[in-house]
Design brief:
Elements: H1 2-23, E1 24-33, E2 40-50, E3 59-65, E4 68-74, E5 80-87, E6 90-97, E7 107-116, E8 120-123, E9 126-131, E10 142-150, E11 158-160, E12 165-169, E13 172-177, E14 185-189, E15 193-204, E16 211-218, E17 224-232, E18 237-240, E19 245-252, E20 257-268, H2 277-280, E21 287-292, E22 306-316, E23 319-330, E24 337-345, E25 352-354, E26 357-362, E27 367-375, E28 382-392, E29 398-409, H3 411-436
Parallel strand pairs: 1-10
Antiparallel strand pairs: 1-2, 2-7, 3-6, 4-7, 5-6, 8-9, 9-14, 10-13, 11-14, 12-13, 15-20, 15-21, 16-19, 17-20, 18-19, 22-23, 23-27, 24-26, 24-28, 25-27, 28-29
């Protein structure tokens, strides 16, 4: 029964729309004037033209957003009665025309003006202007829109759809849009919004022995990045996840409580909507709070990584001997660095390095040590070399490069050499003993 009623209502609306289109032509010209410190002024000029000599307009309804205020109707040489009422989050403006305009081609003209504070939205240092299409505009015969923005806004980073004409006048940029067929107009100044965040979680080890506790912290996602200003205390270890978060692992003593706190900034690569942490971080532990502070990406800390090579050096006969080395990496920023590659090689090709290349992810303030071994030719007692280690980002740029010189010993060759020397010594002793006899 419900489906039958819905079908009947849809058919009735279609018939009403078709009847209106057959009897009247509707032309609307909209003008939206934005200001830096005042609500947006909206002016809509309506022209209703009779297409049928026997029919004329007696009533008309305009649907406006709930945020519309100071609604005024102006009509030249015509009497119009206005009634306002709200319904389902919208304002319905019912117009009754007290005089009759009869005859094919006769026109009824009126202007509707109002102010709206919801069309201009400031998000994280970016400005977003959104002009929704008028309800029923897809049925207008002509719907032209003019948008005026103050020159102090500057040139926008994007405008959709593409305006038919752009000009300047009276300290304003003027955009003229052709009939948009129900399409909204979006103008953006900036492409990112920067949000400041605070996150906190309390850990409690209820066991009678030391135990590890895991927290899940906010990380990068498909449309946002996170940079940390602080994380107190730093985790004992770090672990990645696949849902836009990462885990910090803490070692707590028996019965210990630990308050973990983090703060920083979230860079959201959209300005047409607000960031929803509940949707973005479904598996986040603890509590996160975000707010707009009007910052830009340029004001955030640089995303850099430091690297240093420390060799395990042995001394033999006063010479430095290197058969193993540690590469120490330290992410000394709040950025999560993914796709880093550590490349280690000997330019001369004298020694082999294991591993030669590895992929690394570094979390905020994480310190990581990679142990590699060096193998020279087994038949040479020693090999002098110079090792090169490069830390490369995901774009192939070298972040840091370190070099270390050393001497690699072949213990097999030394053993053989020692054996030969030993045998030579034994042979010499036998020879000496033989001569004595």
């Amino acid at each position: 029964m419900y489906k039958k009623w819905c079908l009947a209502i849809a058919m009735w609306l279609t018939l009403v729309s078709q009847a209106w289109a057959a009897d009247f032509h509707t032309r609307v010209s909209g003008e939206y004037t934005f200001s830096a410190n005042a609500p947006t002024r909206v002016k809509l000029d309506y022209t209703l033209t009779n297409a049928n000599a026997a029919v004329f307009v007696q009533n008309y309804q305009v649907i406006l957003p709930e945020s519309a205020a100071n609604i005024v109707i102006q009509a030249k040489d015509q009497q119009i009665t206005k009634q306002l009422h709200s319904q389902a989050g919208q304002q319905l403006v019912d117009l009754a025309f007290d005089n009759e305009v009869v005859g094919q081609g006769k026109r009824r003209e009126f202007t509707l003006e109002y102010t709206d504070t919801s069309l201009r939205q400031k998000r994280g240092g970016s400005l977003f202007l959104h002009i929704p299409s008028l309800m029923g505009s897809e049925e207008f015969d002509s719907y032209e829109t003019i948008v005026r923005t103050p020159l102090e806004f500057g040139r926008p980073d994007f405008v959709t759809p593409t305006p038919e004409k752009t000009g300047t006048g009276s300290g304003q940029l003027v955009y003229t849009f052709a009939p948009t067929n129900g399409q909204a107009i979006n103008i953006g100044y900036g492409r990112q919004q920067i949000l400041q965040f605070e996150w906190q979680q309390e850990l409690f080890n209820r066991q009678h022995t030391p135990a590890y506790q895991v927290v899940t912290l906010p990380g990068d996602g498909p449309e946002w990045r996170v940079v940390y200003s602080s994380l107190t205390p730093e985790p004992t270890d770090w672990q990645p996840r696949t849902n836009g978060t990462w885990q910090g692992i803490y070692l707590l003593a028996a019965g210990e409580r630990q308050q973990v706190q983090a703060s920083g900034y979230l860079i959201y690569d959209r300005i047409d909507q607000d960031f929803d942490p509940q949707k973005a971080y479904e598996q986040l532990t603890g509590q996160i709070y975000l707010w707009d502070v009007g910052k830009t990406a340029e004001s955030l800390p640089a995303a850099s990584v430091s690297a240093s090579i420390v060799g395990q050096v042995h001394r033999w006969g006063g010479l430095p001997i290197l058969d193993r080395y540690n590469l120490s990496l330290h992410n000394h920023t709040g950025w999560v660095h993914e796709g880093l590659r550590l490349v280690v090689f000997d330019p001369s090709g004298k020694v082999k390095v294991d591993p030669l290349e590895s992929e690394i992810t570094l979390y905020p303030w994480q310190k990581s040590v990679i142990i590699c071994t060096i193998r020279g030719p087994w038949w040479q007692p020693y090999t002098v070399f110079q090792l090169t280690a490069q830390l490369v980002d995901s774009q192939g740029n070298i972040i840091d490069e370190q070099k270390i010189s050393g001497l690699s010993l072949s213990y097999l060759a030394l053993a053989c050499l020692g054996g030969i020397i030993g045998l030579a010594g034994v042979a010499g002793s036998l020879l000496v003993d033989g001569r004595r006899r």
